[in-house]
Amino acid sequence: MTLDATIARVTDRIRTRSEGLRGEYLARIREAAEAGPARAHLTCGNQAHAYAAMGDDKDSLAEGRAPNIGIVTAYNDMLSAHQPYETYPQLIKAALREIGATAQVAGGVPAMCDGVTQGQPGMELSLFSRDVIALATGVALSHNTFDAALYMGVCDKIVPGLIMAAATFGHIPAIFIPAGPMTSGLPNDEKARVRQQFASGEVGRDELMKAEMASYHGPGTCTFYGTANTNQMLMEFMGLHLPGSSFVNPNTPLREALTVAGAKRAAEITALGNDYRPASEILDEKAFVNGLVGLMATGGSTNHILHLPAMARAAGIILDLEDFDEVSSVVPLLAKVYPNGLADVNHFHAAGGLQFMIRHLLKSGLLHEDAKTVAGDGLSRYTQDAKLTEDGLVWVEGPEDSLNDKILRKPANPFQKTGGLKQLNGNLGRGVIKVSAVAPERHVIEAPVRVFKEQHEVKDAFKRGEFTSDTIVVVRFQGPKANGMPELHSLTPTLSVLQDRGLKVALVTDGRMSGASGKVPAAIHVSPEAANGGPLAKLQDGDIVRLDATTGELTCLSEGFETRIPVEPDLRANQFGIGRELFAAFRTHVGPSTSGASVVL
Ligand SMILES: O=C(O)[C@H](O)[C@@H](O)[C@H](O)[C@H](O)COP(=O)(O)O
Ligand code: SF4
């Protein structure tokens, strides 16, 4: 199938834009690869320290001929998605021992659960934790005793931070090992309904707690299509998972078989063998464009508008908002998974899942098939599903037709003709809006603004009954320099209640939303941020603003707006408590959201 002209043009533009940076990156990676196997550079003392506690594997490690695989783990008990990782290192070590290879836990990385910190001060460390994860992975792999790395992470900032490090250590192969989604509990839309009832005082806290616990009920990734499950999609579209491994539930025989297979595959693709697949060769412009296509076709999380540019830059590739915008304009929305629909990722996987999508996007010429992956050359192998048979783990072609066209469709009959992501421009700055979950009649709003600094102030104004007409709610000083750019997802129930009461409402912020946010139109990541003197700092209550997701306009229409002096914020409350005092350097040095709000790149 001929590659779509727009996809080809965007890829060429990215390749040209990145030429210098990518060239320097690849030269560094080549130098690291040419230096030879990692452990050859270590002294006897270095090695003795590295192997001292490795028991049965000590001799094999000391001989230095067999591949030694570094495990980077984001295990903790706080994320339901990461709790299953507790037992993986032992399983991996035993699997590699079977084939004469070894594995060591190179190090752990922190992982924040955005569900635990949502609406809490801790959320102000969330985005920064992505770069902390990249730094911590660098510390782990700097032991330089590994021929490949297995990265165990699933959720929001964890996969992006691990990718930033995997690209930095791009001379060694990288395989991402998922743990799979939680089994389906109380449907996400039912949970959201009880939250709205609680916000409007119709039910009490005990009713709300019951619903939340029935929704988030066990190990595995939360079942909505948020940032974590968008990560899982990316890892298959970008060829860093084994095919079909993203949405297999934890603590199942198939999940265990895929973990073992991923470990053994890592040992096969090191420089010691004859199928060397370094991460740098997989993380190229084609992989990132394939990731952009998957993001649009699945209606993925807006957080990847921040994460993908940071991930790409670590591999010497420069992504721009115009790339997202143009890919969105030609890639149809093929999946309806909450918040874009009622289904969850388990239903999506059962309907044909990622394998169905990759099959039909390849057929439509919307993906680069000639991509390198950890499983081998060519993305078409990712149209295959993983199955456990009496012959063990096998890969078989996924379904040609969707098993549920309310959840999954072919490009010829999409839910929406485009990916539903729109770049915004105007005298309020540059931002983005995702409309795949917003009703078409709500794509344009022109209304007076109410201006707030904190999300709790919005909820307080709501409780005082102050929202009685169409309103654009502006929450500013939420950018990375101001307070770390938290998610404002906890506003969703309040704004949804206003919307359901018949008001036209929208959110405009230099902050961000959760991948689980959806039905309320939100212009997010507005840049330059208010704390940097951005135009949002000039807005006053009552100004008329126009947000048009069809034309991509974000404009203040009030007289005299342009000549106003930006408001100076008092940000002292964001500089202390819950560890925020440790992140002053991050707030000072963080880059703009338009290039991923990174501190390290
Ligand atoms: O970007 C995301 O996908 C979110 O950060 C998600 O990981 C977060 O945990 C949600 O806030 C959970 O949803 P609720 O807060 O609605 O439970
Ligand atoms: S999906 Fe979000 S809420 Fe669920 S475990 Fe991951 S970070 Fe936590």
UniProtKB/TrEMBL annotation:
Stretches of the chain forming a coiled coil according to its record: none
Cellular-component GO terms for this entry: cytosol
Pathway recorded for this protein: Carbohydrate metabolism; Entner-Doudoroff pathway
Positions annotated to bind [4Fe-4S] cluster: C155, C222
Cofactor note: Binds 1 [4Fe-4S] cluster.
Example of a GO MF term: phosphogluconate dehydratase activity
A GO BP annotation: Entner-Doudoroff pathway through 6-phosphogluconate
Top-rank taxon, per record: Bacteria
EC primary class: lyase
NCBIfam families: edd
The protein's name in its UniProt record: Phosphogluconate dehydratase
Organism, as annotated: Thioclava pacifica DSM 10166
Higher taxonomy: Bacteria, Pseudomonadati, Pseudomonadota, Alphaproteobacteria, Rhodobacterales
Encoding gene, per UniProt annotation: edd
